[in-house]
């Protein structure tokens, strides 16, 4: 019988050196949510999402919820806490460290890369290239015949992506 991911992650043998990941996002209704996930050598698993709308002392609130999850997992089983370097997460890390000094902090590599691409995207020649590519994508997407020709020739391998202002990496993917 196959063991589920949860069985493997929380078995006696897999219940050590876990990383708690925390990320905030906004759902389609505009609610601010905080996701808490746990990762170990067996994989990653979603633990909970908590509505963070209208929270005034965000770091204290966030730390309180993370402490609940750390206790649920067992503090000695949690090795580190990973989140982006937003100021609220830096404060949260300090609050968690006060209660659990053995838990390390790790910055989110993906967030760091996104910030790097954002800075690269500010270079004039890159901005100009993004603008030119975005105009071409918009033209093809907005003209039925051009879009049909593109889909006939490339649809098996490629798709046209419109640029997005919130995640700058999509602009680099667009020009690829």
TrEMBL record:
The lineage of its organism: Eukaryota, Viridiplantae, Streptophyta, Embryophyta, Marchantiophyta. It comes from Riccia fluitans. Coiled coil: none annotated. This is DUF659 domain-containing protein. Pfam families: DUF659. Residues 17-131 form the DUF659 domain. It comes from the Eukaryota.
């Amino acid at each position: 019988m196959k063991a589920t991911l949860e069985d493997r992650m929380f078995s006696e043998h897999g219940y050590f050196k876990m990383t708690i990941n925390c990320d905030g996002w906004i759902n389609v209704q505009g609610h601010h949510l905080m996701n808490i996930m746990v990762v170990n050598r067996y994989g990653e698993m979603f633990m909970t999402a908590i509505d963070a709308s209208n929270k005034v002392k965000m770091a204290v609130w966030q730390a309180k919820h993370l402490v609940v999850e750390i206790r649920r997992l067992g503090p000695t089983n949690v090795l580190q806490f990973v989140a982006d370097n937003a100021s609220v997460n830096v404060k949260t890390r300090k609050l968690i460290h006060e209660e659990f000094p053995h838990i390390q902090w790790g910055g989110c590599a993906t967030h760091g890369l996104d910030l790097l691409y954002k800075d690269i995207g500010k270079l004039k020649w890159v901005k100009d290239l993004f603008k030119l590519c975005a105009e071409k994508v918009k033209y093809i997407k907005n003209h039925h015949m051009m879009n049909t020709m593109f889909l006939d020739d490339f649809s098996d391998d490629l798709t046209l992506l419109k640029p997005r202002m919130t995640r700058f990496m999509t602009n680099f993917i667009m020009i690829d």
